[in-house]
Amino acid sequence: MAQKKAGFVTGANAKILIDNVTIAYATNVGYDVTVQTIPIEGIGRYEVWSNEPVGYTCSGSLTVIRYTGRASSSNISKTAADGNAIDKVTQADSDRNINEHLDPASLLASETFNVKIFEKTVDGETRVIEIVDCRLTRRSGNLDKRGVLMDNYAFVGILAGDADGTAISASESGDQDLEV
Which residue range forms the structural domain that includes residue 75? Predict the structure, then answer.
């Protein structure tokens, strides 16, 4: 019985990446995938004929326990030496950072990012979900007298997919060629 491995993704065995950068001390991440529908109605019938899809949206939120460079140099191992603020996440293949999504002077030049959640096991890592082409929409913080500073971020994405081997694609939806 002790040799059996649990098949649950928990906060203890999850790894959260933003643009392939591991976010240290992320305490929770949530996401929503929504398909908007409208009822198709007809004269002489009380019930609807069908509910037809008209839109697809992805959104989510992320909470991070903040630390500074001073904390990382003294007692937190394997972390960024200058803290974990969102401006420390440099986007892949560029020197831009995610903080540009919240900077009015850089909004139009900002680039999208991907959010990935992995399960860590003794055999390696397995992708659980990925949300592609995300943009930050909100940042807030919370600090109480006996607690630590928590940064809360909200984001929207274009497409989300699970890691069950079934690709989710938007290639049949207009001129997009997206796939997860």
Answer: 17-28+60-162
Task: Let me know if residue 97 belongs to a domain.
Answer: yes
* Residue pointed to by tokens 């860590």: 120
Name the pTM for this structure: 0.76
CB-side neighbour CA atoms (13 Å) of 123: 4
Q: CA dist 79 to 14, 52, 76, 91, 96, Å?
A: 16, 48, 7, 17, 20
- The encoded tokens of residue 106 equal 């850089």
Q: What's the total number of domains in the chain?
A: 1
Q: What is the pLDDT of residues 111-141, one digit of tens each?
A: 888 888 888 877 788 788 889 889 989 989 8
Tell whether 65 is covered by a domain: yes
- Chain centroid to Cα 150, Å, comes to 17
Q: How far is CA 68 from CA 77, 88, 95, 133, 174, in A?
A: 13, 11, 21, 28, 45
**70 assigned to some structural domain:** yes
In-domain check, residue 170 = no
